[in-house]
Write a structure and sequence with these properties.
seven-stranded parallel β-sheet, 16 helices, globular
Length: 394
């Protein structure tokens, strides 16, 4: 490595609005603040403007096509980018881009870093081989201890290569008491929330495994156990149109039309958490991380998750929230009742614990600094030190 500014290329399918894409933009911002050059190769998307604002440069490249021939073509394209831009390290965040990057990096003799974002289960050897590229980096980043455990046991990733770096949220964005009343009122009006109503918030795309179906069944039970003034807001886009229709039909069958709001995508999560009384994530499958519950805790809100996956790391049961067995509507109803009936002093204690836990372990700054530290390990650079100096007063 020379004394020049290091050039880091991130590769991913597209700059959409998911956690993977947001992470790429956040790391591009950190690279720039650390004195490096941040490149992102992908298809364009809604976060393109944010990437440019963060100081990153976008290279339009279709890395989504799942064919061996397309991967080889894209590997050659990445080689050309590496040579043209003087790329020192490539960071891959998704499997198809990672296969192309793995080939290109081997040919160009530069390090590859991979991040395992999803669960990526493998029920047969072919799928495991497909997944394995995310375990082939010179450094392999797991976004939770849950994912790290799988990488160790199923893919044989050694401790020397494995780094656990949880995703994070910005405590300046998710800070209790600073969200304007206008923002909260705007959401309350759009969701039809009346003054004094408790809000049960579930921010997730509408798809079966996220657990909206279990929540609806739990709400029917809750109505009989705690028939106070509460409503439930399902804030998320349709991930599965058929499931969404079935869910709305079930709401009608249970007579919950006046209690349940299908709100679509929420673009102001800090205000949503501020409006919420409790935030729930009743996922049926283990979550690899679960940023929404971290954001809620950062806002001092009690959370309810399921006792599996990374939620067992991000939630401190009985201190910052509750966990219930996946798929158990009865237990979920009891947990909701418990939170809704908790007195104000206990809720204030919980809010302090929740925010302290989230800020200590799950901030964007921590995620950025630790990732830059991984780059420094491989390149002998000082990106992390410069970044932390730039953000010392935050």
């Amino acid at each position: 490595m020379t004394d020049r500014s290091p050039v880091i290329l991130q590769v991913l399918p597209a700059l959409g609005t998911g956690g993977l894409e947001r992470g790429a933009v956040e790391i591009a911002s950190a690279i720039t603040q650390g004195g490096g050059t941040a490149l992102v190769a992908s298809r364009p998307g809604r976060l393109l403007v944010q990437l440019r604002h963060a100081g990153g440069r976008h290279i339009d490249l279709d890395l989504k096509i799942k064919s061996p021939f397309a991967v080889l073509r894209r590997a050659r394209d990445l080689q050309a980018i590496i040579r043209r831009e003087g790329v020192d390290l490539v960071h891959a965040r998704s499997r198809i881009p990672a296969w192309a990057a793995w080939i290109a990096c081997r040919r160009e003799n530069i390090p590859l870093v991979t991040t395992w974002h999803g669960v990526h289960e493998a029920t047969w050897w072919g799928k495991k081989l497909y997944n394995s590229v995310l375990a082939r980096g010179a450094r392999v980043i797991a976004i939770s201890e849950f994912i790290a455990g799988r990488l160790r046991s199923e893919y044989g990733v050694s401790e020397s290569r494995l780094r656990v770096i949880p995703r994070g949220a910005d405590p300046q964005d998710f800070e209790p008491g600073v969200i304007s009343g206008e923002r909260v009122q705007k959401l309350a009006e759009s969701w039809g929330v009346l003054h004094g109503e408790d809000v049960i918030l579930m921010p997730a795309r509408l798809t079966d495994w996220k657990g909206q179906g279990v929540l609806i069944e739990a709400l029917a039970l809750l109505r009989d156990r705690a028939d106070t003034g509460w409503i439930c807001v399902l804030a998320g886009p349709e991930g599965d149109r058929k499931f969404s229709r079935r869910l709305q039909q079930r709401v009608r069958e249970l007579g919950l039309e006046d209690r349940v709001r299908f709100a679509g995508t929420c673009t102001d999560m800090p205000a949503a958490c501020d409006l919420a009384t409790v935030v729930v994530a009743p996922s049926l499958r283990p979550e690899p991380f679960g940023r929404t519950l971290v954001e809620a805790q950062m806002m001092g809100r009690p959370v309810i998750g399921t006792a599996q996956g990374a939620m067992m790391e991000t939630i401190l049961p009985g201190e910052t929230g509750l966990v219930v067995p996946p798929g158990d509507a009865d237990a979920l109803a009891d947990a909701l009742k418990s939170v809704l009936e908790t007195d104000e002093d206990a809720l204030n204690w919980l809010a302090e614990k929740a925010r302290a836990h989230a800020v200590a372990n799950y901030t964007t700054d921590l995620m950025q600094a630790r990732t830059l530290g991984v780059y420094d390990e491989l390149l002998g650079t000082h990106l992390r030190t410069t970044f932390e100096e730039q953000n010392h007063d935050r």
